[in-house]
Amino acid sequence: MYQRAFFLILPSTMLLCAVSAVAQSNTVNVLVSNQINTSAGISGRLRVAMSTSFQLIDFSYQFFDQTPQALAALGAIQPQHTRVQLVPSSDPLTAPGVWDFSQLDPFVAPIQSSGDHSPEFQIAGAPAFMNDANGTLLPTSVDAFAAMSANLVRYYNTGGFNVGGFHFESPSPYPITWWGVFNEPNGNGLTPQNYVDL
To answer: CA 92, CA 181: separation in Å to the nearest integer?
Structure first.
């Protein structure tokens, strides 16, 4: 005779399965008990939602204009925290002090208008002028990258920012709460310590 206990811990629920078996009869008895951890999840309940991801590349910024039915389809899944990835070639900071949101606005604003109105904005890398020939962020560009990121937060969340006599402000009424810095930082040439420093 043998007895084993198995534990499966989920964010909101702990399941305990005790299995007893008699070797000769191949009988298995299973006891399942449920304890709710109200400090996990939302009042102890695991919440699951659909979502998706969009990547802005210089040729994809007109996606919602060219595919108007896409926004209805996106809304139908009621997405939570849709991921918007801004790749380096589409950064709105095109040169030091030169901002251009003409690709970002028609791409991000429709996503902000869908689902929970709270996408996760991934700044996947730095503009080319901040990188070396291999596309790796230069140590001397860390402060410039931080300043660019801060201006993006201002653009979406605090009424915009001013540079060179121009005011830049998101056309969307929805702020962006969730931010990601870089994507696969090892692919961007950063060591773990570089990433922590960044």
So the answer is: 15
